[in-house]
């Protein structure tokens, strides 16, 4: 499962890092760590001091969590640091983890991470809705909020996801190359959540 997140500015940034170690999956599920990785992807590199200013947490806390993220390959030290003020950067533009695993420990950790990410999505969407009144009419009318109920096979659902990926991929390079952004372009988060709706019966009983 890929986490939808803003790609980091920077040259030759790998598209994604895949977590399969249950310890890494559990470590990344921490709200502050997810926030730090997201900020590094959109605004990095930066130091723990800058991270504290962006998150409202202490420098010591941010430094600790950045080191944990580095342990599992999600962030790394960036060049140009002096003394303790070393900058950090994300190692990839997206984070992925297994949708399914025969290993119970991996499956449980992956599901817990997915739940944590879903909660984070909800918080971000709620905040966006609360601040929507500040947007121009043009942006308010362009934003999308809705759902669709489709009857699909697993293969069709997977194929639909691949087609959506193909539609979005041409815009990804704009994150690392500002010259590709047309006038008026702003960062937009697009969430993709498709799940089997078990509250709706597959067929009506006669």
UniProtKB/TrEMBL annotation:
Domain of life, source organism: Bacteria
InterPro entries, alphabetically? ArsR-like_HTH, WH-like_DNA-bd_sf, WH_DNA-bd_sf
Entry protein name? Helix-turn-helix domain-containing protein
Q: What organism does the record attribute this protein to?
A: Streptomyces tanashiensis
């Amino acid at each position: 499962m890929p986490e939808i997140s803003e790609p980091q500015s920077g040259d030759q940034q790998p598209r994604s890092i895949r977590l399969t170690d249950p310890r890494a999956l559990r470590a990344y599920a921490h709200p502050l760590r997810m926030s730090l990785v997201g900020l590094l992807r959109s605004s990095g590199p930066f130091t723990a001091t800058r991270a504290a200013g962006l998150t409202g947490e202490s420098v010591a806390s941010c430094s600790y969590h950045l080191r944990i993220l580095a342990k599992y390959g999600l962030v790394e030290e960036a060049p140009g640091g002096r003394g303790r003020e070393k900058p950090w950067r994300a190692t990839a533009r997206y984070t992925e983890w297994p949708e399914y695993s025969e290993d119970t420990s991996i499956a449980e950790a992956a599901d817990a991470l997915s739940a944590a990410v879903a909660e984070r999505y909800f918080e971000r969407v709620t905040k966006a809705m609360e601040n929507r009144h500040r947007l121009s009419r043009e942006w308010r009318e362009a934003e999308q909020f809705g759902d669709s109920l489709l009857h699909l096979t697993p293969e069709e659902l997977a194929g639909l996801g691949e087609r959506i990926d193909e539609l979005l991929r041409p815009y990804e390079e704009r994150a690392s190359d500002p010259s590709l952004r047309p006038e008026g372009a702003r960062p937009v988060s697009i969430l993709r959540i498709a799940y089997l709706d078990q509250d709706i019966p597959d067929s009506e009983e006669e």
